Amino acid sequence: MSHPQSTPSAKPHLISFKLCPFVQRSAITLLYKNVDFDITYIDLADLPQWFSDISPLGKVPVLKVDGTVLFESAVINEYLDETSGGGLLPADPLQKALNRAWIEVGSEMIIAQYRMLTADTEQNSRDARDALEKHLQRIEAAFGDGPYFNGAQLSLVDTAYAPIFLRLEIIERQHPIGLLDNKPRLAAWAQTLLGLDAVRRSVVDDFESLFIEYFKSHGGWLGAQFGQDN
Ligand SMILES: N[C@@H](CCC(=O)N[C@@H](CS)C(=O)NCC(=O)O)C(=O)O
Fold first, then answer.
1. Which of 24, 42, 59 for mutating ligand 1's site (highest number of atoms within 8 Å of CB)?
2. Torsion, Cα of 109, 110, 112, 116 (10° steps)
3. Closest ligand 1 atom to the C-alpha of 60?
4. From 60, 77, 113, 114, mutation site for ligand 1 pocket: most ligand atoms within 8 A of C-beta
5. What domains can be seen in the chain, in order of their start residue?
6. Mean pLDDT of 193-211
7. Reported pTM
8. Is 20 a catalytic residue?
9. Tell me, what's the pLDDT at 230?
């Protein structure tokens, strides 16, 4: 078996679903690092056969690099960082391990956020909200002086959490649930991340309306509340 070279010679190609927060992590990293890339959007409700053929877990993101298929957002992001000069994870092994652990917490939170949005009853949605609240309180306690998770410099932890804050901001406009209330460090962190050009450009222009429509029509209690208080 021949192994591809580790240095990419062609543009990386990101396979995306417009609403996926995991893909957004990779899009932010690509944009922040000014890496030129191609992007193809698929519909997760109607998977194309070519995607099922190449994606080991049937999930996005997938990043194709010179014919090699990479998957798992955290892995893709480390690859993108390493091949574009590094700098998005601490050099110190202990701090690097800790950053990876917090990225993993972020993945759990993305799943909790999706559960909150799609839970069928008010009670189940509130339970999911409370699970998210506990995670957020823990991060508020762990967060330093900012403006980024590691201090002055943006890291892969920031690119991993920005999609959560983007969605929280939209939810708050549609049906306030106060998840950033009494969390001044996280509120400031969210504003910093949402103000970044790479974050703003990491989703399609009509992301907000797609997001609202998707969750309004997905049978979840919270989505059904969207726009009702306005
Ligand atoms: N651990 C994966 C999670 C990716 C993931 O769950 N992606 C969702 C969309 S946001 C997906 O492709 N779901 C399709 C499925 O589970 O069948 C990562 O970090 O990349």
1. 59
2. 130
3. 12
4. 60
5. 13-82 (3.40.30.10), 93-225 (1.20.1050.10)
6. 98
7. 0.95
8. yes
9. 57
